[in-house]
Amino acid sequence: MTRLPTxxxxxxxxxxxxxxxxxxxxxxxxxxxLETGDTAAARQRIxxxxxKAADRGKLAESxxxxxxxxxxxxxxxxxxxxxxxxxxxxxxxxxxxxxxxxQAEQVVGDHAVLASNTSSLxxxxxxxxxxxxxxxxxxxFFNPVPASKLVEVVTAxxxxxxxxxxxxxxxxxxxxxxxxxxxxxxxxxxxLGVLLGIEAIRMLEEGVxxxxxxxxxxxxxxxxxxxxxxxxxLVGLDVRLAIAEYLYTTLGDRFAPPRLLRDKVASGHxxxxxxxxxHTWNQ
Length: 283
Ligand SMILES: NC(=O)c1ccc[n+]([C@@H]2O[C@H](COP(=O)([O-])OP(=O)(O)OC[C@H]3O[C@@H](n4cnc5c(N)ncnc54)[C@H](O)[C@@H]3O)[C@@H](O)[C@H]2O)c1
Known about the structure:
Blueprint: E1 7-11, H1 15-27, E2 30-34, H2 39-55, H3 63-67, E3 70-73, E4 85-88, H4 94-107, E5 113-116, H5 123-127, E6 136-141, E7 150-155, H6 161-173, E8 177-182, H7 189-205, H8 211-222, H9 228-235, H10 237-251, H11 259-266
Parallel strand pairs: 1-2, 1-4, 2-3, 4-5, 5-6, 7-8
Antiparallel strand pairs: 6-7
Helix pairs in contact: 1-2, 7-9, 7-10
This protein binds nicotinamide-adenine-dinucleotide.
């Protein structure tokens, strides 16, 4: 069992992929990031994250030193064959995820562990077409990755105990805490977080209280670091809606997306990233 994978491949250099690449590189791993969109923007996201970490005194070396261990590529065939861990962080679309995982498995060696950062999709279904589903699991990082303490480790029925133990060790080496959750819709975090979020939206629809009051109620009354509407703004209303739709089809009516959520997404009010969601944000 190794404390840290020597070589990590991250697929998707967006918000999550950049953060995942940053934390593994900062811990000492060599990281390849596969980004089929804007590769320069992906590299910049990692550089910005490292600069922020350095400002906060959280980096043991210079940002450039860490960035020297990161390679951004645009062709899946260029993933290093010596990769020990692949983390997939492309958009939340099952076919796309299955496609990149299947292709990655053919490039990296048979010993590699493959993981998906999906927020809600079935790990069992994503892994079903892989040659080695026993080496596949969910590694659900949180946003923003460098500051978040938790990684939800999601196991499918076939994931071997060795692979789970190895991944838990790697998570701890990153200075994070793991919780192991059996594969089920929404795992533990998305299932509870989305349910709280959509109930808060229903309360807003019903005029029970305004957004600020609902958030303060949970922040001060229950000690949540962030209220459910502010948290929905941060995740993205479009992302929350997609997860709610999926949980509605898999777990039932209690996850039915509220009208207000659909309307806000339709009018482009997606939360912090657009400046307007349930609250107004300075960009
Ligand atoms: N944003 C969050 O708060 C959050 C939290 C936890 C998990 N997640 C999950 O993480 C995953 C990624 O989310 P995100 O917010 O980083 O999305 P994002 O849109 O910021 O990033 C996705 C990146 O993948 C790239 N991409 C698309 N197709 C690709 C391909 N075939 N090969 C390589 N790169 C490709 C895109 O160009 C983009 O840069 C999703 O499954 C999401 O559900 C998101």
